[in-house]
Design a protein that fits this description.
The complex is a heterodimer of chains A (320) and B (349). Helix content of chain A is 77%, strand content 0%. Chain A is an all-alpha fold and 320 residues long. In chain A, helix 7 crosses helix 9 (181-192), helix 12 (222-251) packs antiparallel against helix 15 and helix 14 (270-279) runs antiparallel to helix 15 (283-314). Chain A is globular, with a radius of gyration of 26 Å. Chain B has 349 residues and is an alpha+beta fold. Chain B contains eight helices and 20 strands. Chain B has helices at residues 41-49, 91-100, 110-123, 139-152, 169-186, 197-203, 221-226, 231-236, and strands at 3-12, 15-25, 30-34, 56-61, 64-65, 76-79, 157-161, 189-194, 206-211, 214-219, 240-248, 251-254, 257-262, 269-276, 280-283, 290-300, 303-310, 318-324, 334-339, 343-346. Chain B has a six-stranded mixed β-sheet, with helices on both faces. In chain B, strand 12 (251-254) and strand 13 (257-262) form a beta hairpin. In chain B, helix 2 (91-100) packs across helix 3 (110-123). The chains are: A mainly alpha (320), B alpha+beta (349). At the A-B interface, helix 11 and helix 12 of A face strand 6 and helix 4 of B.
Amino acid sequence: MSTQSDVATVATELRAYAPTVDLTVSPLSSRKERTRPLTGRAVGNPRTEPGPVRFIIIALAVTFLSVFVVLPLVVVFAQAFSKGIGAYIAALTEPEALAAIRLTLLVAAISVTLNLVFGVIAAWAIAKFEFTGKTFLITLIDLPFSVSPVISGLVFVLLFGAQGYWGPWLQAHDIHVLFAVPGIALATIFVTFPFVARALIPLMQEQGTQEEEAAISLGASGLQTFFRVTLPNIKWGLLYGVLLCNARAMGEFGAVSVVSGHIRGETNTMPLLVEILYNEYQFVASFAIASLLAMLALITLVVKTVLERRLDEGQEPSDH
Amino acid sequence: MTIEVKNIVKKFGSFAALDNVDLKVAQGELLALLGPSGSGKTTLLRIIAGLDWPDAGEVSIDGENALARGASERHVGFVFQHYALFRHMTVFENVAFGLRVQPRAIRKDEATIRARVKELLDLVQLDWLSGRYPSQLSGGQRQRIALARALAIEPRILLLDEPFGALDAKVRKELRQWLRSLHSEIHVTSIFVTHDQEEALEVANRVVVMDKGRIEQIGTPGEVYDDPATAFVHGFIGESIVLPVDVSGGSVRLAGQRLNIAANGAASGASKLFVRRHDMQIGPAGSGSFEGAVRHVRSFGPIQRAEVALSGGEGKTIIEIDAPRDRELQAGEIVSLQPRRYRIFAAQD
């Protein structure tokens, strides 16, 4: 009976709070605020710090970023090209370097594909269904984030190594896991497992199950519902997860280092080769490969920004 | 198509959402499930649709056991409170969805699907929006598209879960009338859930009033309003004055004073007297069951609403009555009140 008037009261209350809410706008947007004629108080804007304070804070941030992010990146490229572009290209076309690039791409392809499948399944189960042990499963998915990568690698040594649980059996059947591609792929999958699932769970939870229910009530089968409704709704989030997963898979050092065995031209991935070359004082070659990884990082950043924008657009507030 | 629900029980943990519910819906009916939130009405609707499963009981649609089939095989149109339109599809594709996912053997060709979607968009008068995306529509438009989408599969029954709950008051009123006329046009057996009594009374042929997982009353809008079966129904539908009374041997007392009304067969003991606001007849002092001082009068439209402090007892009982404007009341005036129609229910209810 009084619901309507209640709603009206809430609305006016919200409006009354609106200015307070406005005050919490982050300083980033304050520049825009000041140019807005409505605010009017351009000079004594209480939301903006005085000029000198602003300058010092910004200068501190810029200096920090330069020293810790920009400078190292510049050094990588400077070192890579220190003997000219010829030496750079020669270093990258070494058979060992090519083998490392090939191996890295292969391992990334395997682990990203598998994690894509596992991640979507796990996120789907967690976001769309209620079951006991759900919290435990979420914790389990996060485990690789909280465990040191070296430990992750060691786990596989314990399982598949010559002295490990399944080592003797594997040796008897002449199956090579450790110090071979399967081991490296397994370690990488373990370390990168959370990325896809983590990107999807909040997105899928926010979207709820209503669209799926609508699809099912319209006669769609489970698979049709997934491919026609669920998947299109999560595609940007999925790409985002895959991108981060890929970046980590290509850059992983610790876990891979433990299981790889460092066999030259066979089980060295790019990050491992960077270290080996560096230890052998081949700085140009080492930094040339490092520059490839750095470029991967830069490309990842750009694509990530684009995807984040897409994700925000996809979540335009619908007026429920 | 008829729907029959028998002895449905559904528990969420220890909370009984539905407690032995029986319901029969006749062919072509437009039935409202009305109740406060938590009364189990949405759960019942979802069970009929196959989106939830009962712990016990039977559901049959057109004499056929519905529980043996999943939601996708029941051929039931479902309209959600928050529309649940597919956000990445155009309006056209949303409506076409149910036709496109049919098994290949019975799926229509593209031209037939297009013609059918066009026909449905004409029916909801929104064919000019077919290329838009749901986020570009207003709430009322979205809900009409959701309805067209549900109708595309030619459902045996149509279920609507608070279909107008997310809309503003004016749009809600328009859509109500529109739904009623649409129903008389296509005549598909329909159930809609609402917590808005006005909506239920205005749109439905029959109203099912629910509370705490049980059905309190089933009847036409006139029956549930004029002849409420329980204290809950009387209090929930329409505005009521409720007074605590004692019934003993045919006489009714309020705070010890005998009232000039008959007990109408109500059992002895602590009871509640229910009177509609407009069923309190105002007379000169000394002529009725209650005496009271008018505290406050507001006049609007055809009625005046008066706050009256009843004398007797501690004099703290204040009731609101609606009176016609043939005699203007004044604040401070002492009036006598006599219920024209009333009901007495045992106090435990």
